[in-house]
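Feature request, filed as a ticket because there's no other form

It would be nice if the structure record came with a short human-readable summary line next to the tokens. Right now we just get the raw output. Example of a typical job, pasted below so the devs can see what we mean:
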Amino acid sequence: MIRVLSSLVAFFSITALCAQNPAGEVPKLVVGITIDQLRGDYLEMFRHTFGQKGFNRLLANGLVYSNVHYDFPNLDKASTITTIFTGANPSYHGITAEKKYIVAQNREEFSFFDDNYLGNFTTDKRSPLPIKVSTLADELKIASGGQSDIYAFAPDASQALASGGHAASGAYWIEDVTGKWATTTFYKNKQPIVDQYNRSAQSLTNTIGSITWRPAIDIARYNAFPYTKNRYNFQHYFGLDKKDNIRLFKQSPYVNREVAEMAIKVLESSSLGQRMNPDYLALTFYAGNYEKALDKNYSVEIQDTYYCLDQELGKLLDAIEATVGIKNTLIFVVSTGYFNEQETLPEGMVTSGGDFHPDRSQALLNMYLMALYGREQWIKKYYNCQIFFDRKLLEDKKIDLVEFQQKAAEFLVQSAGVQDVITSHQMLHGAYNENVQYYRNGYYKGVSGDLFLELQPGWKVIEPQSSDSYRVRYNAVVSPVIFFGSNIKPQKVERTIEATEIAPSVAYRLRIRAPNAAGGEILKELF
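Raw output as currently delivered:
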């Protein structure tokens, strides 16, 4: 009886709000599409290879904002996608990166790790509980009295859990070892289509060994980069390196095919968008670099990735039209921003930057602190451009934390390759300025470190005990946002919007409350 009453209340609330609003009826289905590292300049450069059903359809008939801005440092796929679906920065939602350093246990773990829940089709233990605020999906579930179906599909667990939120009917990702569509026992329901696919002969587990990535079209059409000396007919065989094949597969356009095909299966086999309450489908695609591209700077692979992604988006939009109708569906497409890219300098080229070795800077800083405070190991870890101090040791020695942080920052900022150092005390209690606020937005108490390092552009970061390295860049990379369907008027808006404005704007169109930490404005073009 209580459930029936809740549903009636939700229905009449949504109906009343809809009647008051000139924007039109509440959509029957919301499809949130996040594309990992989608670049606006690449969309324009590669557009001549696209068909008319994917990107071109979205760009011609959608509300297109030229750029999205994330107002915090060290963007990655976990922090950005959580910001999109919560409408809040990491300082509120708590997901500062894909992984985090646990000071008390001196170990690294995934930000979505949760020992209280087991995995389905995976040994990984994950849950959305590390997200400390509500998500767009959570608010829809509450508004509908639990009646809305919510599904998320993504290459990685962090993406699926952030987009599906706490209230998802199911959130699925591609398991790193087996290639199965995995989930967590946190979610009580199972989508039978996923289980059937995982056990079928067509599952990635059974087919990965026979997949070879070759150009989808004649490489003569991949001519967007004028500086490419040679275009090459590449081929990458995913059955070659069985230890790493799933991880590499997730950097190829074939991962987008997996996501799109699963989404289409669910659309065609379920009642999504067919009932009184709006339903919700969150999908994450990949548009980043392939680490084994033959040409790191201007690769044919990235052009092929965009071409294939365009084809998959076309199939998805056709499926939405056939099952629910585009006019009944609110679709939004958001880039997660652009991260550190692979870059190869010409042989013999000398730049003004150098190599920044975090482990060496950490060692030098600890020696300095020893000279001031005694021969102890004061630093626990350098991690993700942050320094973590041994807080317990400082407490035992009765050393003032604020003074300790400040002296360490003053020393470290003199190091070659370091532009600025900001202490956690500055972020929480110091005098305000834009740079401090920017870092404050990415700081979460109990997760973030004592010092944040801003490195100088052009310097190459050599990560300790890892083969990974990247060159620091702060140049602007345009990342578009598109709203499509649901009677949205086509328009191109040459304006940068904040990532925190997306969730409250979608909530407005759904006639539900915005997530509880969403502080962004509603985009005026969606009124």
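Something like this underneath would help us a lot:
Residues 355-471 form a domain with the Gyrase A; domain 2 fold (CATH 3.30.1360.150).
The two ends are 36 Å apart (CA to CA).
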